[in-house]
Design brief:
By secondary structure, the chain is an alpha+beta fold. It contains 15 helices and 15 strands. The strands form 3 sheets. It has a 7-stranded antiparallel β-sheet. The radius of gyration is 23 Å and the shape is globular. The two termini are 33 Å apart.
Amino acid sequence: MSVPGTTRTRVGKYELGKTLGEGSFAKVKFARNVETGDNVAIKVLDKDQVLRHRMVEQIKREISTMKLIKHPNVVKLYEVMASKTKIYIVLEFVDGGELFDKIVNHGRLKEDEARRYFQQLINAVDYCHSRGVYHRDLKPENLLLDSFGVLKVSDFGLSAFSPQIREDGLLHTACGTPNYVAPEVLNDKGYDGTTADIWSCGVILFVLVAGYLPFDDSNLMALYKKIYKADVTYPSWFSSGAKKLLQRILDPNPHTRIKIQEILENEWFQKGYKVPDFEHGDEVNLDDVDAVFNDSKEHLVTEKKEKPASMNAFELISRSGSFDLGNLFEKQMGLVKRETRFTSQCPANEIMSKIEEAAKPLGFNVRKQNYKMKLKGDKTGRKGHLSVATEVFEVAPSLHMVELRKTGGDTLEFHKFYKSFSSGLKDIVWKPEANSSDSRS
């Protein structure tokens, strides 16, 4: 699906597309299996980081376990590959967006709908726990919906990589988003992955029904205090059944916190509950996992790079809000979410220089690689440093699209940054309503 005469990035039998998400250890890319035409998501890990953090055995164990997990509410792991410098984890591509976006766009859910998603979440968590896999970073952004509205938990067993289990059998690294993590995770006395995941499920249920977080404060220490005390005020629209269940889940003492089996038997939870229907015991081949971690040279794949990634009209349309191409070219001064884009008729090198010029006075450190750039704010904001990834795509020889994505920090801060940043890019943004002779004025 690329413009004639150009190449796309290929890894083995997969053609890589846009970046879907980014974390401290990995990047997730959209990809297509060129042999079958199926869409997948590929998680890309840096081998050096894996070795530096001594995570090889843990990642190997978790990837092997994830290959064995086949549940309708968990994103499937198909295979794993490696190049000389990277590890590629091939996952099911879920096309219905994040559950988080549903709340952002439409506000809180009706209790029956929230319960339906919560039931699927608990089914997934229960199944994975029974196989010794813990998530440790459950939050609405990790809950995806497929095109039928079925909940799929992503990053199960692949979320953190960094926590270490010590001899006491407890995890000892505080990870995850502070608003969703259990009190025992924050105090570094060791915690049980099972009870910590249950707490996060409770916070998610609260968010679904309330439309906002149970524990929130711009001051991190004040937020921790609220979490330690489980200081929750329940809105009037919560039914008594939902409130009672949440009080048992959001218990700051992990030893008395409700267990999954008790949640499954709870009267409020049971309403309209369907036991998950899926096949068990498929044969699973772990040869690819062994090959990746045994430094087997014969199984290495290569990643073929090119100039700015090319984009054809179909991809251009798919990135706009609807099938109206006009959406791509409107002035991006309205409310910006976590991702935004603009088009330019300037050469790619000129666009890269302009982005750097506009970002530096705003206090951003710039890292460039090919036609991609990472901007990192030097000030610590509400949710850490604001960081932004940018990439230049070639739509046609004389037209480029520039995509900006927030990869860290607060969305509101990203919105403020973009307002200042975009004013420094006015002379390179293409305004299609202008004539071609003055489109760069």
